[in-house]
Amino acid sequence: MLRIITDYGGLLLFAMGRTLLLALLGLFFACIIGLFFGIMSVVHNRPCNVISQIFVDVIRGVPMIVLAFFVYFGVPYLFNTIIGGFSVTLTALQAGTICLALNCGAYMSEIIRAGIQSVDIGQMEAARSLGLTYAMAMRRVILPQAIRTMIPSIINQFIITLKDTSILSVIGFPELVNTAKNVQANTFMSFQTWAIVGVMYLIVITILSRSAKMMERRLNVGR
User: What is the pTM (predicted TM-score) of this model?
Assistant: First the structure.
């Protein structure tokens, strides 16, 4: 184990950095997707509600590994061969970010929907009675209150997204698991390699989990 730490410790730390980068990018775009479909799910418009529900059901119903293969191999094939007239290639980082954003975005949509619905309906009625449009009331009154209840869930979703990055080793992105496979192949030390990787994940996820709990306590105190 000491040999792996001394010879490959820097490589594994760099891979963990790439893993965190991928998770952060995925969460950033997932928040945008989730906000869009989350608002669509609560507006008083049946077609918007149906579209949002279909997106959530489809993405959550497809295994992430299948989604990764579809984005990395299927989407370029669709544009280059079936549609034609395009020359589309996706790097592993781009495909991984899209995959994580879609997968996490479906869950973020439900988090945002629940956060918005947790705000008393009287808040929207009061804002509308003061002359605010629905969009202005949502942006200035409802969302600021809803975000307070969403933050712990968003941090927990980030933890899940961080762990899901390991699946993207199947498309060749050099995150921690993919790098660990190479270290294992070079050293023939399976137990030691995966023990180190497990500890690295455990440290990062424990820090994030504690942060979520601390933030939740502070938000509860502030109410």
Answer: 0.86
